[in-house]
Amino acid sequence: MSLAGTAERGPSPAGSSLTGARLEVRSVSKTFGRHQALSAVSLEVAPGEIHGLIGQNGSGKSTLAKILTGYHAPDPGGQVLVDGQQLRLPVRPREAAVRGLAVVHQSLGLVDDLTVVENLRVGRFRANRLTRAIRWDDERRDAEAVLERLGRPVRLDVRVAELSEEERATVAIARALQDATPGRGLVVFDESTRSLSRASLEHFYDLLEDVVATGTAALLISHHMEEVLEATDRVTVLRDGVVVEGGLPTAGLTENDLVRAIMGRSLEQLPARPACPRRRVGDAVTVRGLRGELLDGVDLELHPGEVVGVTGLAGSGHDELPYLLTGARPARDGTLQLGDDTHDLARFEVGTAMAAGVALVPEGREHAGLALDLTVADNVLLPRRRSRSAVLPVERSAETAVVGEWVQRLDVRPPDPAQVVGKLSGGNQQKVLLAKWLATAPRLLVLHEPTQAVDVGARRTIGEAVRRAADEGCAVLVAGTDETELTMLCDRVLVFRDGRPAAELTGDFTPDEVVEAIFSGHIRKRLRSASPPAGDG
Ligand SMILES: Nc1ncnc2c1ncn2[C@@H]1O[C@H](COP(=O)(O)OP(=O)(O)OP(=O)(O)O)[C@@H](O)[C@H]1O
Fold first, then answer.
1. What range does the record give for the signal peptide (predicted)?
2. How far does the centroid of ligand 1 lie from the alpha carbon of residue 467, in Å?
3. Homologous superfamily of 285-373+442-536 in CATH?
4. Predicted confidence band at 495 (pLDDT cuts at 50, 70, 90)?
5. Could you report the predicted ipTM of this complex, rounded to two decimals?
């Protein structure tokens, strides 16, 4: 199916809506310095519609979402209307809220030091009219109700800093959904579902269907084409800040159609999945008797030269592994053998791990991985400086060369080492996070959901960089639940259940087989029992 010739919908006359749209964006532009992030963007979202907004990393999606909440002021000349009412620009957050415009930003916008209930209810507290005291029982009941509808109970009194990425996303989504006024306005989700498990995703979409059934609309920003096709009625596609497809009905489209619209070329023309090296070099990295909150006596062998995936349902323990192996969280018990050195994982710390050549690319780059106020160069060089300054004199030109090489290898856009990381688009921040740890040339590289929020082209670039690290002798562990990512990156995938690897996919497995293995535990022909785990060496 060709997307060519699909007309962008024209805006209605100034000041009022002829279409009854929930949201109308008319010719909005945004310039950062000399960079035009949005050029005369127009968009309409109809009542009860789930509208997708898609485009490559840096194409301007989050900039538009941030204009809708008043975080960014647009250039003069554009208009934003909600339910036919023109908003004053820049948008004032209070007016946006009153009009029923809620946004879940990519960074989620939570306050780490406040509890879940405080994050959910801040700015919405109802006080006793006489005493002005906050009615906490009512606040808790409302907070609980919305979390329950999302099917993901989160303890209300825990500080948000202590939550998992999935729980953080749930709280941010719940906060936006509780603000939705039935039959009015619009909720924007900017890559908000990226860390939800499949089960949570189902709850999210059930709830979203209820919300849009009232006539409220939703704008969904996502890099997951499958999700976009499944969930949305129409899509608008941005390329370099320009609408290249406006309000295109998704019925009958394929993932390839969307990729072609986003990239301007089809998926087949992108570099193919690299052949698995299946080449194991040097001594295995050995994990023995690893126990944590969920992991229950795990034994693993990873070989330099291979990329091993670990996956499973929420609670299976696979996503605890990255943090226990890298000293980010203490294990209850267990050892990690790297060459001649055996490390006690109950006492392992990040500094020791880094000195031993163990690197972690965590989930949640904004609060766990990057210094957003520092430049690309400073972020990339941080771990190298920390681990090597005691041994080698810091050499400026060598550092510049390293940063330049990684910016180029991972195709960071704009390719400017002096750019402040907080000003990069989400996907480009993720590339910097990877560059930061790949540049240390680790012996063991542990990645948690490494292609989160990156576009389909960048996924391949990251895949190639990770495989190249393996080819150069690094043992790589990838934890995640994205079947496409695991299939693209990994030589084999261990599926965890009840705190242990329960099955293993090897050879030429497909994304569907990964999903099937996670959910059914059904043993297919390429899926064999993974116990005892040491037997694969
Ligand atoms: N505060 C800022 N200062 C300067 N440039 C910025 C700022 N915020 C965004 N940009 C630039 O504007 C462009 C659009 O960024 P935006 O975050 O909107 O992209 P995006 O489509 O949301 O990307 P992603 O899919 O990676 O999240 C990028 O080139 C980005 O570097």
1. none
2. 28
3. P-loop containing nucleotide triphosphate hydrolases (3.40.50.300)
4. very high
5. 0.99
